[in-house]
Design brief:
Low-confidence stretches: 581-594
Strand content: 15-25%
Shape: elongated
Mean pLDDT: 88
Number of helices: 19
Structural class: alpha+beta
CATH topology of one domain: Beta-lactamase
Largest sheet: 7 strands, mixed
Length: about 600
C-alpha cells in the first residue's frame, strides 16, 4: 500500500503539473479568442427597429404610416435535422422544402437568416403551431415595421415608396428618408444553449428613436378631385399620360399633384422585379415618374401670357394696342407663321384670348431676343423651382448664344423651349399674387416624435418680383379672363365664377430634336379663379391624346374646370356674380396700329 502511494502520488503530481502547464499555454496563446467565442455564444444583441415617421396631408390626415408585422427568421446552427425542419416549415410559409433545406445546410455557421418577412396572421398562427408541435429549435418570430398607405394610390407620385428594409425610394419618402427613418436601438442579453434569454444587460440597452412626421401642403380631398378628373380625361382621349397640378397662388403651396397612369405605393415593386426583362422593368419605372416635375415639353400657347405680360410691364406694348395680323399666314424674314383663323387686326388682349401666333410673333419682334431671354429666365424657366421632390428637371432654355432670328418668333409662341408643369403653374401664379414669383412648396413642416417642430415651411417664399402689381392685375382681368369668356378656353367656364386661363396645343419634338413627331401633341390648359381674388391655379396637360381631339381647349380645359369648381366649393369660396359677358375695364386707351 505504501509502495503504491509512492507510485501514485508522483504520477498525480506529474499530471497536475502537465495540466497546469497546458492551461497556462492555452491561456497564453488562445485565451482571448476562446473567451470571445464564449461571449459570442452566450450573448445576443438584437436591433430594435425605429418606427418610421408618418406623412400627413395639410389637415393631418395620414397618407403614409407604419404598422408592425411578424417576420420569421432562423438560427441554422440550432437546427438539429435540416430535412425534417424544412419539410415542416416550408409548407406553412409557402416556401420550397428543398430550397429551404439547402439554405439551412449551406449556412450552418450563421446565426441569423430571414426566412420570410411580414407574414400574414394565418401564416403566423400555423407557424407557431408547427414549431410547438414538432419542437423545432432555431426558428423564431421578430416584429418589423411595415409601411402602409391608408389612401391607397392617392398622391403616390408625391409620396413615393419604400424598399423591403424601409429605405425611401421615391418622392417624399426618399427626400426626407433621414428624418422619417429614425434611429434604431439595441438590446443585449445573455442566452442559454437554446438561445433563450437568461439575463438582459441593462447598461447595454439603447432605446430606438422613432422617425419624425412630415406634414405636406397636399390636401387629400383636392388631390382626389384632381386625380379622378385627370384619370377620366386620359382614358377618354386614350392619352399616353397626363398630369395635373393645383396650387394656392398666394402662398405657393401645392394642394394637389397628380400623374396618370399611377401606381400603388404599397406594392410599387412587383414580385420578381429583378428577374424581369429590361423593357418590363422600364415600363414599371415609367409608372413611378412624377411627370409634373421630371418631364419637360414644349409648352405651346400656354407660354404666350408670360411674354405678353412682361412686354406690357416694360411698356413695350399696351393691353389695347392694335396689331395688324393680316392672317392666316405672315412672313418674318425666312420664317412663315400660321394662325388657325384669318384675323385682320387684334388688340394685345385679343392676341392672347384668340391665341394668335402671328400676333405673338409681332410682339416678339418688338421685344427682341435679349429681352425675351431675360423674360424667360426672370420667370424661372431653365431653373428648378425647388419644390423638394426628386428628379426635378430644369426644362430647357437655350443659351443666348444659340438664339437665332427664328427664336424671336418661336419663343413667344412656346417653341424652342421646354418647361415642366410645376414651372408653368409657378410662373402663372404671378398673375394672381401681384406679380411675385413664389417658390412652390409641398412640405409645410417636420415634427419630431416628441412633438418638437424641426422644420417650419408654413410661410410663402418670394423668389423675385416679376411684374408690377397693377400690371399683373390688368393682364389677368383683361386678357386671361377673355380667354375663357370668349376665346379658346370656353370649356373652362364655371357658373358663378370668372375663370381666367390660357389654352395650349404643342407638337411633340422628335427624340433626336430634329423636327416634330407627326400627329403627336400635348394639349394643356392653365387657369385659375375667382378672377377678382384668385384662390387656386390649376394646370392640366394631356400627353399624346389619340381620341376625341387634341387641342388644349378640348382635352385639358374641362379637366381644369372640374378641378377648380370642386375645389372652390370645398374651400367654400363665395361665387362672383358678374353680368353676362362682363369684362373688367382698365380705362386704357388704344394705341396706334403696328
Amino acid at each position: 500500500m505504501t509502495r503504491a502511494r509512492w507510485v501514485l502520488f508522483p504520477a498525480v503530481g506529474v499530471l497536475l503539473i502537465g495540466g497546469a502547464t497546458r492551461l497556462v499555454y492555452i491561456e497564453t496563446t488562445q485565451g482571448e479568442a476562446l473567451r470571445g467565442d464564449a461571449a459570442r455564444q452566450q450573448t445576443v444583441t438584437r436591433t430594435i427597429p425605429a418606427q418610421r415617421g408618418e406623412i400627413l396631408d395639410t389637415r393631418g390626415r395620414v397618407l403614409a404610416g407604419t404598422v408592425r408585422r411578424p417576420s420569421v427568421f432562423v438560427d441554422p446552427a440550432l437546427v438539429d435535422d435540416t430535412r425534417f425542419a424544412a419539410c415542416s416549415i416550408a409548407p406553412v410559409l409557402g416556401l420550397d422544402p428543398a430550397g429551404l433545406q439547402c439554405l439551412l445546410d449551406e449556412h450552418r455557421q450563421e446565426r441569423f437568416i430571414w426566412l420570410k418577412r411580414r407574414i400574414s396572421d394565418d401564416e403566423l398562427e400555423r407557424f407557431k403551431q408547427v414549431v410547438g408541435a414538432r419542437r423545432l429549435r432555431g426558428f423564431a418570430v421578430q416584429y418589423e415595421p411595415m409601411r402602409i398607405y391608408p389612401q391607397a394610390r392617392l398622391a403616390a407620385h408625391v409620396l413615393g415608396f419604400v424598399g423591403c428594409d424601409a429605405q425611401g425610394l421615391g418622392g417624399i419618402e426618399q427626400v426626407y428618408d433621414n428624418v422619417l427613418r429614425g434611429t434604431p436601438g439595441r438590446r443585449t442579453a445573455t442566452v442559454d444553449v437554446g438561445r433563450r434569454c437568461v439575463r438582459s444587460k441593462v447598461k447595454e440597452y439603447a432605446p430606438a428613436r422613432d422617425g419624425a412626421t412630415v406634414v405636406l401642403t397636399i390636401d387629400v380631398y383636392t388631390q382626389q378631385i384632381a386625380q379622378e378628373a385627370l384619370a377620366r380625361a386620359v382614358e377618354k382621349h386614350d392619352a399616353e399620360w397626363g398630369t395635373a397640378v393645383v396650387v394656392d397662388p398666394m402662398s405657393g403651396e401645392v394642394l394637389a399633384m397628380a400623374t396618370v397612369p399611377d401606381f400603388d405605393p404599397a406594392a410599387a415593386i412587383p414580385p420578381g422585379f429583378g428577374q424581369m426583362s429590361p423593357a418590363d422593368r422600364d415600363a414599371v419605372k415609367a409608372r413611378w415618374r412624377n411627370r409634373a416635375v421630371t418631364d419637360s415639353y414644349e409648352p405651346g400657347s400656354i407660354f404666350k401670357p408670360f411674354i405678353a405680360s412682361c412686354a406690357l410691364d416694360e411698356r413695350v406694348t399696351q393691353i389695347d394696342e392694335i396689331f395688324r395680323i393680316n392672317g392666316p399666314t405672315h412672313r418674318f424674314g425666312r420664317r412663315t407663321i400660321h394662325d388657325t383663323h384669318a384675323y385682320g387686326s387684334l388688340a394685345l388682349h385679343e392676341i392672347i384670348s384668340k391665341s394668335s401666333n402671328i400676333g405673338m410673333g409681332l410682339v416678339g419682334a418688338q421685344c427682341g431676343n435679349e429681352r425675351l431671354y431675360r423674360y424667360v429666365r426672370m420667370l424661372g424657366f431653365g431653373d428648378i423651382t425647388g419644390v423638394e421632390l426628386p428628379g426635378e428637371h430644369t426644362g430647357q432654355v437655350n443659351d443666348m448664344s444659340r438664339w437665332t432670328s427664328f427664336s424671336t418668333q418661336s419663343v413667344p409662341i412656346g417653341q424652342e423651349i421646354a418647361v415642366t408643369p410645376i414651372q408653368i403653374v409657378t410662373a402663372f401664379s404671378v398673375f394672381c399674387n401681384g406679380g411675385v414669383l413664389l417658390r412652390p412648396r409641398i412640405v409645410r413642416g417636420v415634427i419630431a416624435a416628441n412633438g418638437e417642430t424641426l422644420v417650419d415651411r408654413s410661410r410663402p417664399v418670394a423668389v423675385r418680383r416679376v411684374l408690377d402689381e397693377e400690371m399683373a392685375d390688368v393682364f389677368r382681368r383683361r386678357a386671361l379672363v377673355e380667354v375663357v369668356q370668349s376665346g379658346t378656353g370656353k370649356q373652362a367656364r364655371i357658373p358663378g365664377y370668372q375663370v381666367f386661363g390660357k389654352t395650349g396645343t404643342a407638337q411633340i419634338a422628335q427624340p433626336d430634336g430634329r423636327g416634330y413627331t407627326p400627329g403627336a401633341y400635348v394639349g394643356s390648359f392653365v387657369g385659375g379663379a375667382p378672377a377678382s381674388r384668385p384662390r387656386v391655379v390649376v394646370l392640366a396637360s394631356i400627353y399624346r391624346p389619340r381620341k376625341q381631339g387634341y387641342y388644349g381647349g378640348v382635352v385639358a380645359a374641362p379637366v381644369v374646370k372640374e378641378i377648380i369648381a370642386e375645389t372652390l366649393a370645398y374651400m367654400q369660396v363665395p361665387q362672383e356674380l358678374p353680368a353676362e359677358g362682363e369684362v373688367a375695364s382698365t380705362g386704357a386707351r388704344p394705341r396706334r396700329a403696328r
